[in-house]
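Need tokens for this chain, all 349 residues.
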Amino acid sequence: MTAALKQPTPISGTAVLGLGVHRPDVLIDNEKICQWIDSSDEWIRQRTGIVTRHRARADVSVVDMALDAAQEALADAGIDASQLGAVVVSTVTHPYSTPSAAADVAGRLGITAPAFDISAACAGYCYGIGQADALVRSGLAEYVLVVGVEKLSDFIDNHERTISFLLGDGAGAAVVGPSETPGISPSVLGSNGEKWGTVSMDNSLLRLRDALTEAQRSGDASRLLDAEERLWPTLRQDGPTVFRWAVWEMAKVAQQALDAAGITAEDLTAFVPHQANIRIIDELAKQLKLPENVLVGRDIADAGNTSAASIPLALHRLRAENPEISGGLALQIGFGAGLVFGAQVIRIP
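Here are the structure tokens for all 349 residues:
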């Protein structure tokens, strides 16, 4: 007779229990950006909604920012790090392919919980919330820390004008745990790999390695410097294609998330989309026909586009400025390089 296997006891309800953020202390305004690219403060504001963006100092790492946000989220949730059953970090800018940023965060928190990274760009935080929800509901973890963190300033060319002027650095974190009433709806996740190169790096690390090796063999110092400057991978995007995809396709995904949650736009307290571009944010709100009383996250004006960190940063600011929204429902949706997308409705902690 085959022995019976034990499985964790699933639970029915999960929720986001706490939030935390890290906003770097270096502010880059549009006047500074215009020293690098041929543009103007007026053009940048009108086209993107961005006035300033935060960027981390050279001695501040992805893990430093993630840890700062994580500690605030734990305090906000009233949870000790020792209670965490998993640590999930969403980032595309950790400078090491391995080991993970999450393992480093866990170590600095003094715990040995399972830890792993998610590479889903601007949708990474929503992917992380979906993973945390599943881990808690399945009984594999009681509490899960989710961090969206980026140091995009390490991977941009300030003189490039398709995406560099949009980007900022920062971190946002959430603690997900059990709840007597459901506080996280089913996640709507997906990708469109046919548009894989629409937002991407302009070079691979293998190409850089091969060029540096060849330059070193030549003994030409100027050639070595040229290879380092020219082939370090930096971000690029096809802006018009991304804009059209985000506006038309992500409105459908947002509606799918509302349907999966069993609610309508009228039930929302807040709408917190990825902070990609103010025109995309406003158009999504318009297509969803959000009532006037629904607050819309527009953190982009001060923070810029912070990829995986943008949604928790925006939600944290909304709650700080409007504490009465705690307990209400927020639709959050992320979308970006891959192209990937993720959305769910959460109850605001």
